Amino acid sequence: MTIIEPNWDLYRSFLSVLKEGSLSGAARALGLTQPTVGRHIDALEQALELSLFTRSQAGFIATDAAHALQPYAETLSSASSALLRAASGIGRGADRQIEGTVRVTASEVVSVDVLPPLLAQLRDSHPGITIELAVSNRIENLLRRDADIAVRMQRPEQEVLVARRVGHIDLGFHAHRRYLERHGMPQNMEEMTQHTLIGIDTENAFTRKLKMLLGGLATSHFALRSDSDLVHLASIRAGLGIGICQVRLAARDPDLVRLVPEEFNISMETWLAMHENLRSNPACAAVYTALAAGLEDYINGH
């Protein structure tokens, strides 16, 4: 069977219908007409000789074939976006302002509480650079170009990545003074079980490692469970209970008190990484340099 290569517009409409669940929703998201999106889906199904959606009054329901093709279409989308970002920074003269779009990915807490002032300084120096900030606790794939630059809490393994260790970030138990005034201050990990604890909801590799360090503290001791680091931090600041957050971040607030540091401390190596092909891109190089310097200042308490 010979399959005629569909153009990118068909895959873009395919991904949008997958996300929106209807032609009308996809059309609004893409800025196209509903008939155009419908023609794209029909053309893609004909080209691939597959049924991608079941049409119903409730909308377009993705078939197993559509779900199987989804990651490949998403890879095409990432590559297309990366190509446009790279092209935006190519061909700029040395005497011209650096311009271009750079996609950065970082965890929730780093994106919300650490990066904004660094990006503000970057924009003052390079107003022609546009930042796309992908907020995610997942490790985005730089090889697939889901992002150009990543702030990671583990050393990148791929040889084709340019990686720089910017230091280590410590995690520890913290509580607001309001909570401690009401409930007292635990003196050791054993006394922690008598307090309102803020913790994780679902398991992953990091949380399994964390459980080993928690010793006698089981999930059943957590009065509030969430997989969002932002929820943990906001709950600690609100005086809801005792939770884990970045020591350097908590030090910014005099009302947050670190607890049992002798018994509990997690030190996470912090790395900045980007694909080596982007080193010659002026915008990516400028962002990489600025973030490295800013993160080192943050970690060292400057």
UniProtKB/TrEMBL annotation:
Write down the species: Duganella margarita
Query: Hey, which family's this protein in?
Result: Belongs to the LysR transcriptional regulatory family.
Give the GO molecular function terms. Answer: DNA binding; DNA-binding transcription factor activity
Source organism, top-level taxon: Bacteria
Q: What are the UniProt keywords, alphabetically?
A: DNA-binding, Transcription, Transcription regulation
Q: What is the lineage of its organism?
A: Bacteria, Pseudomonadati, Pseudomonadota, Betaproteobacteria, Burkholderiales
* Protein name listed in UniProt: LysR family transcriptional regulator
Q: Show where the HTH lysR-type domain sits.
A: 6-63
Pfam families for this protein: HTH_1, LysR_substrate
- Cross-referenced InterPro entries, in alphabetical order? LTTR, LysR_HTH_N, LysR_subst-bd, WH-like_DNA-bd_sf, WH_DNA-bd_sf
